[in-house]
C-alpha cells in the first residue's frame, strides 16, 4: 500500500492496526482509511518495527491491537508501547472470553478503551475519533505546560517590574515636591501610617491631589498587591451610592435584573477610597458606620450580611469638625474615619513645587495626547510659577493640556496660557513675594530692588513684553519703564 499521510498540519492522524488475522486487518483498514492514515502489522514484532520507523516522521497517534496474537497478548504488547511511546492512545480489541484478563491489565498498559468483538463500524470510528481528540488535547496541554514553565521566570519578572513601576508612579515617589516643600511633612506621615491598617481622613481643597495621597498610602501598605477602589460619594444620591458600594441582589429595585457585587466586596483585601465623604447624608452615614465597626454589610435585597477586610481612606474638602458641631456629620463616624487626619496643603502654599509639578504633568500630557514638545519657554515657566492656581493641581493639569493641544512650535510659550494666568494681579503676586523678602540677599535697599525687578519682569511677561501695557499697569511712563529695564538688565533676549 502507499505511504499514509502524516498526522498534524491538517493531515490525517496515523493508526496502527495490529492483528494476526489478515481478513480482520483488511476489514479494519477499510473501515478506518477514509478518516485515518492506517498502518497494519500481523504481530508484535512487526508492529514494533512500524512504530520505530514512523517515530521520526511524526509517530503513530493510535494503536489498535487485538488481544489474542502469537507469542504475546495485546495487553502485554501495549505495556511496552506505553513505556516507549507514552503519547500514543492505546485501544484493545477482543472477544468475550478474555474480558477479565484484559480488565486486570488495563491500568498497567494505560489502555484508553476496551472494545468487544464483533465490533460495529460506527462505534469503532466514533471511539477512534474521540481518542484522537483526547490525544490532541493532551499534547496541547503538555505543550502549554512546558511553555508556561519555561516562561514563568520571565512572566514573574515582568509582573514584578510592572508592580515596581506602579509603586514608583503611585507611591510616595509619585508625589512631586521640592526639597523644602510643605508636602514633605505629609509624605513623612504617610510613611509612618501606611503599613498599619488605620483609617485615614485626608482633607484639603479640591484638586490638591487627595486621591494621589490615598494611592500612596495604599501602595505603602501590606495591601499594595490588592485592589485600590475609588468612589466619589458626592456624585450619587443615597440609593445609587448604596448600590455602588454594597451591591444588590436581582429584583432589589426596578432595573436590578441581575446580582451585582459592590465596591466594598471588590476591594476585599485591599483599600477603598471614599472621596467627598462630607457630601453624604446622615442616613447613609449610619450604614457606612456599620461597615467600619463590624466589617460587614448587607447588599440591597440581600438576606445575609457579607464580611469584608477593607481599609477605608476617606477625603473631604469640607471642615468635618465644623460639620460635626453643626450636626450635619455624625460624630462617631468622624472619629472612625479620622483615626489619622492628614491635610494636603493647596498649591499656593507650596509654590516651590509648581515648576517640578508642571514638568511632570507635561510628560503625562504628552503621553495622553500623543504629542511631543521640548518643554516650556522661560516666559511660560515664569507665568506658571507666578500664578496662584486656585484650582490647584487639577487646574494646572488642564492648563498644560490646553497649551500642548494649541501649540505648533517646539516649546510651550506664554502666549498659549489662558488670560487669567497671564493677567495675575500684581498685588496678589507681591503679597506672596513679600513673605520671601526677608530671605533675599543684601540690605533693605538691595532687597527692595530685587523685589522691584521681579515685579517688573512678571508684568512684562503677563503682557507678552508689550512695554506700553506693562508701564500702564505699573504706573510708569515708557521712559521710566525703559530706565528700569536697563537698570535691572531685563531687556528681552
TrEMBL record:
The keyword Translocase does not apply. InterPro entries: AAA+_ATPase, AAA_lid_NorR, CheY-like_superfamily, Homeodomain-like_sf, HTH_Fis, P-loop_NTPase, Sig_transdc_resp-reg_receiver, Sigma_54_int. Transmembrane segments: none annotated. Keywords: ATP-binding, DNA-binding, Nucleotide-binding, Phosphoprotein, Transcription, Transcription regulation. Residues 176-405 form the Sigma-54 factor interaction domain. GO terms for molecular function: ATP binding; sequence-specific DNA binding. The keyword DNA-binding applies. It comes from the Bacteria. GO terms for biological process: phosphorelay signal transduction system; regulation of DNA-templated transcription. The modification 4-aspartylphosphate is found at residue 66. Residues 14-132 form the Response regulatory domain. PANTHER family: PTS-DEPENDENT DIHYDROXYACETONE KINASE OPERON REGULATORY PROTEIN-RELATED, TRANSCRIPTIONAL REGULATORY PROTEIN. This is Sigma-54-dependent Fis family transcriptional regulator. It comes from Azospira restricta.
